[in-house]
Amino acid sequence: MRELIGSKVGMTRVFREDGEAIPVTVIEAGPNVVVQSMTEEKHGYSAVQVGFGERAERLFNKPQRGHFAKSDVAPMRHLREIRFEGEVKVGDSLTVDMFKEGEIVDVTGVSKGLGFQGVMRRHGFKGGQKTHGQSDRERAPGSIGQASTPSRVFKGMKMGGRMGGDKVTALGLDVVRVVPEKNLILVRGTVPGKNGALVKVRISSRG
Q: What would the DSSP string read from start to end of 64-124?
């Protein structure tokens, strides 16, 4: 797998030569500095731990500073393990150069937290009738169970509740443009999360 962690910058559009406007999400992906390498012999799996983003060193505790000092790497805000093909060693930087225009990627992030929402927004319910004497059923869910049988609400019933703040993966996004000098990758469409949120970009395994 080829993967990078980065942050969502925002959305814009780019134009093809024929004038077609393509909506894209701009992602600042990398550079990711390799902090630790996991091997089959020692850890039971192969991966690399990479760091991304700046943060004042005084905000790290002593064990965290020691972890970075052992790798002779400056402390970084985010640490994540990623699967990576190829030979890398501690201190190497992974950049957007690994992606090419036209490739298909998957982007994983945490969706925007929307707080408590009702069934119409959360599940797409149409609401109750707006006439025939009703006064407060326009956005209600309706029946959630019977009184005598089963005398309870089944687990998994679609009801109002917390919405958003979930790990979500946008699958099969086209890489429209790569800007290595600015560590940017532009992918077609939307990706989860608000601007500035941490995201992971990886080559899609679905084609």
A: HHHHHHHTT----SEEEEE---S---TT-EE-GGG--TT-EEEEEEEPPP-EEE-HHHHH-
